[in-house]
Amino acid sequence: MAPTSASAADSPTQSAPDTIENNLQPFFVLHKASSRKSEKRSAGTGKTRRRIDLSPSPTKKTEKSEECDEQHRFEQLRMEAFELVWSKINSTIKDVLRGINTNVFDEIHRWVCESFNTIKSFGTPGIAEATRAFPIVTDASSKLLFAGLVLTKNMEFVDDLLTFEEVGLCLKSHGCHVANLSSLDFSAKNGIGGCLRGLLRQFLMATMDAADMSILASWYREQENNNSPVVVIIDDMERCCGSVLSEFILMLSEWVVKIPIILLMGVSTTLDAPRNLLPSNVLQQLCPSKFVLGSPAERMDAVVEAVLVKQCSGFSVGHKVAVFLRNYFLNQDGTLISFIRALKIACALHFSMEPQSFILGGLLDEEEQEGEKSGLLPEIILKNAPQLPLYVRNQMAEQNGKSLVHGLSELKRLHKCWSIVVLCLYEAGNCDKIRLLDLLCEALDPDLYTSKASNNVVLENDCGLPITSDRFMRRKYSTSQKGGLISQIIRKVRDLPAAMLYQLLKNWEKITVDVPEIHDKVKELQSEFRFEDGKLKQNADDISKRHSSLSPLNTEKDSKAISEKAAALLDSLVGDFFRPIECIPFHEIVCFKSVEKLQSALIGDPRRRIQVDLLEFYKILRCSCCSKSGNILVPSMHDTSVMYTLAQEHGDLINLHDWFQSFKAIVLRPSKKGKPKSKQSPLPKKRKDMNESENKSEASIQARFCRAVMELQITGLLRMPSRRRPDCVQRVAFGL
């Protein structure tokens, strides 16, 4: 019994190594070359020796996993910052566009109410009469269909989709029944039935097989909805089929007494578009009204002011990026959606490329929670510092935490002053119809600021005057800006009449109210003059000081002097506060400047991108077996990548036979190594099975080869064999 007890006592000690051995088995399955050696060393002290040899590897894996987790947390932090910043930008854009059209929306609502009251004045039919399948016989005036034509001025109807969606929501908020139909509902393929089914689906919230207006009339009467108008919105009537739209309008005019339907149609070109699309008998059934929305340029200026000038989220762009966005907007026929999409891509690229961009999300989050007063506290940066990679923490340590916080505070202050001056210039250039996006591109140019600063340094050395002298700052900036928009605006201010100059000063007072150092200068200029009877007059206090007289200055010469003072004030603001974002320290945190990355993301080079992805596929798949091999081809690589890498060794023409043999040599795994028993003569049955497996392997390799060639042809990198050279394929793309 003693041996039995001894074996029982030894069993726990043996089970522990066995458990470790079982846990390590999955790691050795991937390394087939070392599997036999591990089996040989599985007995005796080999277990302990292998456990000791492998003890450092978990620490290395732990370090690597910690680094990966740290990098993943850092990427997640920047992604959260991007989502927060873009959410703020997107909501601001929607509010701006809604605010631009608020007056037009209110005008449309008043017109809908007036039209509804006019229709109700013709009398309200009873339930039995209103639900009959035939119209009511009345006079011609009661069959008029009230139609509102909304001029959008857009070349592309994409921007109008959001506008008419906002119109529908505005009318629904006032109790109207609204249905939004697109131009696709009025296609010749769908016919009039498609329009009716679209109406019934939106009003009845159900799909009807039978499209009949009597169903809609029954819904309007039975559901007690007869106290509100029914508004049908068509986003772009010029894209509709003329015959289908004409039939739809004639049908609605027959039922307008039973169902008070009011039509609202979008027009992108001119208000005379219905005459070119509809016949005369249909036009006679319409009672049109005209509404004009803001132009695409006006909407663009409003978006640029809120997002890029005032910086609602803190995110900014550099000069080259701003110029690219302007050209992209113009090349896309002034489509605002394309500009917003490009801006979103620029924002995403900034947070993916700049390591310290997470700070922008922290500042914005803090401002939304506690206000701007605590938006630049050191705790925001120190709170997220432990989550950063080591090299970023070292960089922040070199910059000194306090100096970084002070730099961010100064960055915000200087940029706010810059934005105020830009808005003052834009307000002064409104009379010349200068677009804010064009002015922004010039205002962001760092070369103009650096050249101005260098000129001031030269003057200081030559004349011995301080660089902060207002006189030299104004003079040198104006002389270096000949032909630019800024100098054009300053010259325009000198020529403004008295009434327009007075209004400009009042607008400047509203714009500069948040910056006391600029606001005080504007108030000082306003205090010297007053506006009476259409003329600017000098204040009595100032007159008594200078001339001891109470006579006002009404001459043209004196009015010119006042304009000169206003132009000098604007010139001094430009000289003192006009510092582009790229010339301020720590601007890399908030400013995106890589125009090449943005251009590649928007315009792109698809053929080059395909070639790069095929040659560097391991960066996308992130597999360890292929990334460790470097430029050496291994069987685990993707077939198409192997084929395209082999194609780099050929010229214009690739011989299919040589290409296949090279592919086959790489795909086939070495099978003869380490098989000493293969020298023995096998049985005939085993030889037959081996030949069949080799044939199957050959067929599968040929199938994989053909599939890879077909994929390269589909991607446009190869041209299939011709009749003259059936054994060769031609390369289409060369190099990167």
UniProtKB/TrEMBL annotation:
The keyword Transcription regulation does not apply. GO terms for biological process: DNA replication initiation. Coiled coil: none annotated. Residues 20-358 form the Origin recognition complex subunit 3 N-terminal domain. It is found in: Nucleus. Residues 60-69 have a biased composition (Basic and acidic residues). Residues 671-688 have a biased composition (Basic residues). Keywords: DNA replication, DNA-binding, Nucleus. The keyword Disulfide bond does not apply. GO terms for cellular component: DNA replication preinitiation complex; nuclear origin of replication recognition complex; nuclear pre-replicative complex. Residues 607-734 form the Origin recognition complex subunit 3 winged helix C-terminal domain. Residues 1-18 have a biased composition (Low complexity). Residues 1-69, 671-698 are annotated as: Disordered. GO terms for molecular function: DNA replication origin binding. Its main location: nucleus. It holds the Pfam family WHD_ORC. Belongs to the ORC3 family. This is Origin of replication complex subunit 3.
